[in-house]
């Protein structure tokens, strides 16, 4: 069989795999879900914050695929790879001026801190406005600062991009047009495996995420003070946040804190005597909350952060930012991913940011000084 024939056959098999995976998850999770309802109104939430182990997201460089998978991916441990954009032309090319020049006349739809659609604006006007704003500190949030995230014009066209046929699609969507025109500027990060993915389905050949659009692929543009408030990604898959320009910071929370942190953000907590009882003892190895972790991250240009599958996180923009992101699940972690998703259900987004909770801000500031 010719190389062309093998490529077509492989792409067809991978596309069919995507369809089968979607159908399997729909039938197995949403029609037969046996997971328990989450507990609402944890009175000990703030105490859990007090007692949790605070960490900085570790920064590494020149890491192999095997080491990355063993130390971080399989252990659901967030990490920042400081040379993550190795080999990307985007480091030299992408800037607010570049996108103004290449796409500035386009009309784009913004989204708010909860991913809800907002106004349509001219891209050039929007980018020049946010690029002129001064930097802020973590926790400083502006009013009505919207993002430009991924926006698609039809589900069918999205499927064609997912299956590697995006170059044949006619579209007026900024996300789709940008994906077509910047393909040679970036590539799969060097520390991620080339194949063996369940999402997107890649059991034949290699994954080239710059050619085949992965789940939740998108360019993000955001202003200082903008916030993507506390959330878990929709399908609970891993995410890589690739920072090209500007600085982002925020928090990632262990799975054990998911309900607690959501309750705190949404105002379903109350200070009670249990606060002092839990907080004073800290979390011993054999305590029921020994897995409580809160990671704080500071993401700089040229770095890529892994946000492990299913973990709640909140992201703040500190200076005018350009980033790229996409989601995935590998073969070796699929069983754990599937069981966790069946137990917890789909992702969610809180109706308020965790940074706005005064008690959490106080606890965070104190731990920052330690």
UniProtKB/TrEMBL annotation:
Superkingdom, taxonomy of origin: Bacteria
Domain JmjC per the UniProt entry, residue ranges: 188-345
One GO MF term attached to the UniProt entry: 2-oxoglutarate-dependent dioxygenase activity
PROSITE patterns: JMJC
Gene3D superfamilies: Cupin
Signal sequence interval, chain numbering: none
A Pfam family that the UniProt record links to this protein: Cupin_8
PANTHER family hit by this protein: ARGININE DEMETHYLASE AND LYSYL-HYDROXYLASE JMJD, CUPIN-LIKE DOMAIN-CONTAINING PROTEIN
Protein name per Swiss-Prot or TrEMBL: JmjC domain-containing protein
